[in-house]
Amino acid sequence: MGGDEERSRETWIPIAEPFLTDLETRYVAEAMASGWISSLGPFLKRFEESFARSIGTSSAVSVSNGTAALELSLAALNIGPGDEVIVPAHTFAAVPAVVVRAGATPVFVDVEPDYWCIDPELAVGAITGRTRGIIAVHSYGHPADLAPILDAAERLGVVVVEDCAEAMGARYQGSTVGSFGTTAAFSFYANKVITTGEGGMITTNSPAIAERLRFLRDHAMEPGRRYFHSAVGYNARLTNIQAAIGCGQLERLRGLLQRRAEILELYRQRLADVPGIIINPVMPWAEPVNWMVSVLLPSDCGTRRERVMQSLSSAGVDSRPFFIALTDLPPYARYRRVGRPGEDSAPVASRLATFGINLPSSPRLTDWQVETVCDAFLAAVHGSWEDG
Ligand SMILES: *Cc1c(COP(=O)(O)O)cnc(C)c1O
Known about the structure:
This protein starts with a helix and ends with a helix. By secondary structure, the chain is of the alpha/beta class. The chain has helices spanning 3-11, 22-34, 42-55, 66-76, 94-101, 120-125, 146-156, 207-217, 240-251, 253-270, 305-314, 347-355, 367-386; strands spanning 59-63, 84-88, 105-109, 131-137, 159-163, 171-172, 175-176, 183-187, 200-204, 278-279, 286-287, 293-296, 320-321, 337-338, 356-359. Strand 4, helix 7 (146-156) and strand 5 (159-163) form a beta-alpha-beta unit. It has an eight-stranded mixed β-sheet with strand order 1-9-8-5-4-2-3-14, sandwiched between helices. Strands 10-12-15-13 form a four-stranded antiparallel β-sheet. A three-stranded antiparallel β-sheet has the order 7-6-11, with no helix packed on it. The site of pyridoxal-5'-phosphate (PLP) has 14 residues, from helix 4 and helix 5.
């Protein structure tokens, strides 16, 4: 390897990085040595059981990724053609993708300006006679305001699916997210709070739904009747090797979250004097986790976000823009969108898409690295503010 490549690997600070230790290595070696490398094996049961305990639900069903967790949730709840599913206008595109792939119709609801999750009032107002579900996404580590949504859903016979992919360990009104919805989806992709490389989990308090999910996950083959498939199934199984990594990560969850919180606190201190920016908002009823350090630049800074990102990159610091508003993406532009009264658009989602930046937030970052990122950010915004 050339010297330059080595140096850049040393100094480049990535946006996210998995944090694995000897514990995960040991568990993976154990799984390998046991021969159980596919979708049967002791680590799967152990991962599902300890996961359910950590969220506080009666069941947890492991799946191949977070998207599959959402997809199987919709399938198990019989959501399909003719049904509407309400989703936030600002989140990862897997959310509306599973709705469309189920044959259902997404309805995009703008997000709350103060904490960037689905606006509960608008979501409740968007419910029609055809609405079957609401996917409440806990975005950038912050819980959605579930109470009004759960309330209306119960009254009107709508199911709530939580998307906890970005918020494992966060709490809403004192309880862990993932314990409120009819089902809740988690992702263990490499940049999430815990990782199994690829992987996901569905939590539920309904034994019947858990059973249905296990059935759908494994080709919809009837238990006890080999090759009798009584529905159109999926292969959405997690492997015992992935579950071994998951068991290690879950044992370390408290420490991982603790370090993530320390890192966010360091960012808050270092960037406290930058005028007009908002860093990971926190509502009084919420105990978020730090999935990503998410900075919203003030709207009057014009289009300088791209210049800030470029300047960070030159300083060896990785960053990401916030998600593009889903209503601005080609496959989703034709669906109904609900904004503040009088607006059939999603202005908050658009503003976040234009002015939001995610900064490095791996729990592996040292304090010194966080300080390096902050110095680069300060230099970038000052440069950008001044010559704009
Ligand atoms: C990451 C993510 C997903 C998808 O998870 P994968 O494991 O990548 O399929 C779904 N929803 C949200 C909000 C996410 O951030």
